[in-house]
Specification:
The structure holds two protein chains of two kinds. Chain A is of the alpha/beta class. Chain A has helices spanning about 1-10, 15-20, 115-125, 155-165, 170-200, 205-230, 250-265, 295, 305-330, 390-400, and strands at about 35-40, 75-80, 80-85, 130-135, 270-275, 345-350, 365-370, 375-380, 385. In chain A, about 35% of the residues lie in helices and about 10% in strands. By secondary structure, chain B is of the alpha+beta class. In chain B, strands 2, 4, 5, 7, 10 and 12 form a six-stranded antiparallel beta sheet that branches. The chains are: A alpha/beta, B alpha+beta.
């Protein structure tokens, strides 16, 4: 039975299976300049005047929102005039890391796969977690798989802690092993049932059943992987320090999240992480903020409300900066230089600025990763903005991955 | 007119030729009245008349039905540019109607989709013959579903991934482990938890185990108890976080409501007409009780608990957030005010004590505002709250061993050789049909093999899992069902959000849903027995986009009351209560727009400016006499969710009315249009802003059609309250809520607008749109323009029955668009 099943996936589902099978490919060369990627995003973009520096060129003086990163200004690139060429309005931000809306995904072989998932495919096969995604209160939808579905977000720092650092006792491990084995055999049975159903299905239904089949196969792969790791202990981490002052503010949560990710990078639990600052979170813990995140983007240019928005945006950058400082202080365990030197960091949004509902000129910042950074650069050429996928393609290549297109890319982006 | 008479004469003479003559005449009308604005050079509304072609095709049918709709409503050609007389208009309407009717296309079959989370939960429950799911099943553990245009059951968003499969497998295992038990019957144990072991648990945020040592100890009736402070903080039991043995339990809570009216409603937000309530949470199951005032009540619950079910107590209320930024700590000042008024001696003494504790000194006369600062009264707050004396947990007990649910599902002592007979009824329920010969063989073989390594009981669980992880269970609209089973499945998910019962399958097979009259009788009987409850809650929630109500919540500073009392929840409940009323009373569909009443409580009364509503949180029917409110058009839910935080937007409101209620789809702004960021610093009226916008010719042609659907609501502010003036700083500008439709009708205010919405053409639009939404709800996709004719047939039946709800819904279920065959 087992053999039949595998043969079936290998032959019958070949056309559909191809892209995903690449994840068995060799991991990217460990000597590549960059080995990790951290992506931080929000759903509403940034207040432009306080994000984009006034002048172009290396080592720019950073405006208010970005000031916490001033210490890094010779190792970052702020890109002006790049986007996914989408119409205005909410709902486009889900295409931030892919350039493709979910509703258009069927037109592409890899659906609306986001570039972090491309990286995870190559960099994730020999670590415990191919990628991790965190964001309080449901997060935002940034990461999409080649199956056109969302990669789920861990929304609770405690859950993240449990996932990453809790080592199970012998009994719990045994239970997990049992569950893994049982799931594997149930899935074999379910996969057999699918063959029957597909015979009589219409074209659209067959697409759905293909998706179902992919789900089963990917579930099987993840079980295999989990079976491989379940016996090995996880690194230990102490979370209590983040909550020891008796207060529980979103500051505590984001510090905990970024510190856990830093440690997960350091201990090679994962190489890809995304962190989101979602719409639904209450930001009122931040000094000067009394309103909702979405509502302060529609501030009608009223000074005091704009200030609330800037406080939320600055909060995001402060946490990013704090994390990058940590990464820069830790020597890379595997290579020369600091961890930051080998971690590509991307901050941005799939929306330009919520106040205008504009999805043009996205706020994009790249740091670290051993790239030759440019400071502030304008990529508008002949009256056209650069497709953001060009940047993503360049970053993918920077990891030593051989690819010459990514989704809607038209070329590459040249770091210095 | 002369041409028309000639045509009539011709009609009498030469019937066959005349038809083409009418067509030619209509085409002449199109040329005269439409071409001027809809030609190649000037295609207003992004529409060019030649694009229609001679007859509708699959590509153009949408344009034809839109054109018909606009001409029928008299909105095209617009009254300002054209004088199309009534007879000519009728000719044009007939022409479009005939053309649309002559268009025949294969009906679109609704594609397969995954069950959404609520359907999954209910279907698991019914497959396993449970009255409810065990409390260790929590829908929150599944991946959240996305809504599409408000609907939670849309094909577009219900894809499936390995993450879904993982969660399904894990939660199904939990349910099976709680239902099918093996081994020896566990021993019953009685645990008594005294007040001192009932402790606070911070529920806000994510790290749930941070204890704030804020136990509000008290003695009520001379007995030791623990009472609630911040309603966001629940109570857990020290030493007893969750049960470890599955089975039936009796949970006895001794509790009282205390200090219900100690503080004024104005400060506390707690209504004198409301009793204090207690929420007992047992895993994912919740029970709410009203507590008697200052009197010990003993509440006993009999509940199925499962290994790992957490127990907690909560104070469900929207009160105690009224002061300052809503933080609970600010409520403390109410105790200071209370004591100052009722016991000044104690007031002074307590203040000095607290001051001493906090600062180590004596209060100085220089700071005589100090007693009015809430920080000195923290921990002394004694507002309306539940007090808990003790909790007793007794169990697990069983009616039999193995338990009843276990026996019902697999029998008392399932044998592996009976695997087929045991699994077949489960598969029949899960897959919503009878089994094909040999269909279960692979699963039976799987169970047999598994039994060797894991034992019979565990092997049966795996077999059931294989049945329920199948697409035959997880996907709906799959075409392996025969006509009857397919209809039974559609009806069941439509009305009840779950798979069909065996009796429904049998009833459909007997022909019990054949024809309008029979369906109507079934619906009426379901309605009488509460069998439509899921529909009554979920359909309006999706249709009216109630989930979006706080996507742009009114500014919490300016609309303080809305924010502090969480009016969004009241407004959703109002909409649901009103919809339920109209359906269950079988009133006309149009009642949703024409009603002069709604359902309000004290919170909504304050927003709506009513002073004759009882001071409590219960929703009651209320009739408005001012012609401004009542029905969907006067509801906070609509008025708030379509407004921005600071300002209202006639465009957003217009688009909601057009798309959600009237089924008109205005073209979106061209993608390259520059959105101007609103600037509220130098307030012009919204009308002036939009007028400037509309002076751009490319914008004007659409906005003339859109804007009149929204201006009427300008007297309602972002929180849905009435206003006569825009107030900006010291400036006050009178509101102009008048506008004109393109068919020449106009209104001066909301009352006149409400009249116009009830015109024949608009009534037809609304009912058509309602029917389309019902079809969207059942099919997971919107009906296409090519379904126009079939929808017309539904409308006809609805009209013949004065648009009554049950008759209209019955006509929908009777339609091939619903049955998909």
């Amino acid at each position: 039975m087992k053999l039949n099943r595998r043969t079936f996936i290998g032959s019958g589902g070949a056309a559909l299976a191809l892209p995903a099978l690449e994840c068995f490919g060799a991991p990217a060369s460990p000597s590549a300049a960059a080995t990790r990627c951290l992506i931080v995003g929000n759903p509403f973009g940034m207040h432009p005047q306080n994000f984009f520096p006034k002048s172009f060129g290396r080592s720019p003086k950073l405006p208010f929102t970005l000031q916490p990163l001033q210490w890094l200004n010779d190792r970052l690139t702020v890109i002006s005039n790049t986007d996914h060429d989408m119409g205005n309005g909410h709902g486009k931000e889900v295409s931030f890391l892919s350039g493709i809306l979910p509703s258009e995904a069927n037109a592409y072989a890899e659906k609306n796969i986001s570039f972090d998932q491309v990286l995870a495919r190559y960099l994730g096969s020999d670590v415990r977690y191919p990628s991790i995604h965190v964001g309080l209160k449901g997060g935002i939808q940034m990461s999409w798989t080649a199956n056109g579905t969302i990669a789920p977000v861990t929304t609770d720092p405690k859950q993240l802690y449990a996932n990453l650092f809790t080592t199970l006792d012998a009994k719990a491990k045994a239970r997990q092993v049992t569950e893994i084995n049982r799931n594997q055999s149930v899935l074999e049975n379910v996969a057999d049932q699918l063959t029957d159903l597909k015979k009589s299905a219409s074209q659209f239904d067959r697409d759905r059943l293909d998706q179902f089949q992919t789900s089963i196969r990917e579930f099987e792969q993840s079980l295999e992987k989990r079976g491989h790791w379940v016996d090995r202990d996880k690194p230990a981490y102490d979370l209590s320090a983040h909550y020891s002052n008796g207060e529980h503010l979103i500051h505590n949560d984001y510090e905990a999240i970024f510190d856990m990710i830093t440690y997960a990078f350091e201990t090679n639990l994962t190489r890809i992480a995304t962190v989101a600052f979602p719409r639904t979170l209450e930001y009122t813990d931040i000094d000067g903020v009394s309103r909702g995140y979405h509502s302060v983007t529609h501030n009608g240019k009223s000074r005091d409300i704009v200030n609330e928005l800037l406080a939320i945006e600055r909060f995001q950058i402060e946490h990013l900066s704090r994390c990058l400082k940590k990464l820069d202080a830790i020597p890379d365990p595997h290579q020369d230089g600091s961890m930051l030197d080998h971690t590509v960091v991307l901050f941005g949004s799939g929306m330009g600025y919520g106040g205008t509902h504009s999805c043009k000129k996205l706020p994009i910042l790249v740091a670290g990763g051993g790239l030759k950074h440019l400071g502030h650069v304008n990529v508008r050429i002949n009256g056209k903005n650069m497709p953001l996928c060009n940047l993503f393609l360049t970053l993918i290549q920077h990891f030593g991955i051989e690819r010459d297109t990514f989704n809607v890319s038209t070329g590459t982006f040249n770091f210095g | 007119m002369k041409r028309f008479c000639t045509l009539l004469a011709l009609f009498a003479l030469l019937a066959s030729l005349v038809l083409s003559g009418v067509t030619r005449a209509s085409e002449q009308l199109l040329r005269t009245h439409c071409f001027q604005c809809h030609n190649k050079e000037e295609s207003n509304g992004d529409f060019e008349i030649n694009a229609l072609g001679l007859h509708p095709t699959a590509e153009t049918i949408g344009m034809w039905t839109d054109a018909l709709d606009l001409v029928l409503a008299g909105e095209m050609p617009p009254s300002e540019d054209s004088e199309l007389n009534e007879a000519d208009r009728k000719l044009l309407v007939d022409y479009f109607t005939k053309q649309v009717a002559a268009f025949n296309s294969p009906m679109t079959r609704s594609p397969m989709r995954r069950l959404n989370n609520r359907e999954f939960a209910a279907s698991v429950r019914d497959t396993l013959l449970l009255d409810k799911l065990p409390p260790n099943f929590d829908s929150g553990d599944l991946l959240a579903d996305n809504r599409h245009e408000g609907f939670d059951n849309a094909v577009a968003t219900l894809g499936i991934s390995r993450y879904h499969m993982e969660k399904y497998a894990a939660s199904l295992r939990k349910v099976l482990d709680a239902t099918i038990l093996s081994g020896d019957q566990p021993r019953r144990k009685k645990v008594r938890i005294p007040a001192k072991r009932i402790v606070d648990k911070l529920l806000i945020g994510n790290t749930g185990d941070i204890n704030k040592s804020l136990n509000w100890e008290a003695e009520v009736n001379g007995k030791e108890c623990v009472s609630f402070g911040d309603p966001q903080v629940g109570k857990r039991f020290r030493g007893f976080d969750s049960v470890s043995l599955t089975g039936n339990y009796s949970i006895t809570v001794r509790a009282a409501g205390v200090d219900r009216t100690r503080y004024d409603t104005s400060g506390s937000g707690f209504y004198s007409g409301d009793m204090i309530r207690l929420l007992v949470k047992l895993g994912a199951h919740e029970h709410v009780f009203e507590l008697p005032d200052e009197e010990l009540a003993e509440i006993t619950l009999h509940e199925w608990l499962a290994d790992g079910s957490q127990l907690s107590l909560h104070h469900p209320t929207d009160a105690h957030r009224m002061l300052h930024n809503g933080g609970f700590k600010h409520q403390a000042i109410l105790e200071g005010e209370y004591l100052e008024k009722n016991n000044p001696g104690k007031w002074k003494r307590l203040f000095e004590e607290r001051y001493q504790q906090m600062t180590g000194g004596k209060p100085s006369t220089k700071h005589d505002r100090d007693p009015y600062e809430s920080k000195y009264w923290r921990y002394l707050w004694r507002g309306a709250r539940p007090a808990i004396y003790s909790v007793e947990i007794d169990g697990p007990t069983f009616e039999s061993w193995p338990p009843k649910r276990h026996i019902a599902l697999v029998g008392a002592n399932p044998k592996i050789e009976n695997a087929h007979d045991i699994l077949a009824p489960i598969a029949r329920r899960a897959w919503k049909r009878n089994l094909k010969p040999g269909e279960l063989d692979s699963i039976v073989a799987f169970v047999e093999t598994s039994a060797e390594s894991m034992g019979t009981i565990e092997a049966f669980k795996e077999g059931i899992l294989a049945i329920m992880l199948s697409p035959r269970f997880l996907m709906v609209n799959d075409n392996s069902l025969n006509t009857n089973d397919s209809l039974a499945t559609r009806i069941s998910y439509f009305l009840k959000g779950t798979l069909p019962s065996q009796s429904l399958r049998a009833e459909v097979a007997r022909g019990g849903y054949g024809g309008h009259e029979k369906i109507l009788q079934q619906l009426l009987s379901e309605n009488a027995q509460g069998g439509m409850d899921v529909f009554l809650g979920e359909f309006p929630y999706s249709w009216l986009k109630l989930a979006d109500i706080n996507f742009m919540a009114p500014d919490p500073k300016r609309f303080h009351f809305y924010d502090r009392k969480q009016l969004g929840e009241d407004m959703k409940n109002e909409a649901l209560a009103f919809f339920r009323h109209v359906v269950t009373e079988n009133l006309p569909v149009t009642e949703l727009l024409s009603a002069d009443y709604s359902f309000v409580n004290a919170d909504l009364a304050r927003i709506y400016g009513l002073d004759d509503v009882p001071m409590d949180s219960r929703l009651r029917k209320y009739t408005f006499t001012d012609g401004r409110r009542g029905g969907l058009l006067g509801m906070g839910a609509f008025l708030t969710s379509t407004a921005d935080t600071q300002t209202t937007s006639p465009i957003h409101r217009a688009v909601y009315v057009m798309e959600t209620l009237m089924g008109i789809h205005p073209s979106p702004p061209p993608p390259d249009v520059n959105t101007v960021e609103p600037d509220i610093r130098n307030a012009k009226t919204i009308k002036e802003v939009l007028a400037a916008h509309a002076s751009d010719q490319s914008c004007a042609s659409c906005h003339q059609s859109i804007d009149p659907w929204g201006y009427a609501f300008e007297n309602f502010d972002p929180s849905g309250a009435w206003r006569d003036l825009y107030v900006s700083g010291a400036r006050e500008i009178p509101i102009d809520a008048s506008s004109n439709f393109r068919n020449g009708t106009g209104y001066k205010n909301i009352s006149e607008f409400r009249e116009l919405v009830l015109s024949d053409a608009n009534r037809d639009r609304f009912v058509r749109s309602f029917v389309s939404k019902l079809l969207t709800y059942t099919n997971g996709t919107e009906p296409g323009a090519s379904d126009y004719g079939e929808i017309n047939k539904i409308l006809q039946v609805s009209a013949e029955h004065d648009y009554r709800m049950m008759e209209t819904i019955a006509a929908v279920i009777d339609s091939p668009l619903f049955r998909q065959n």
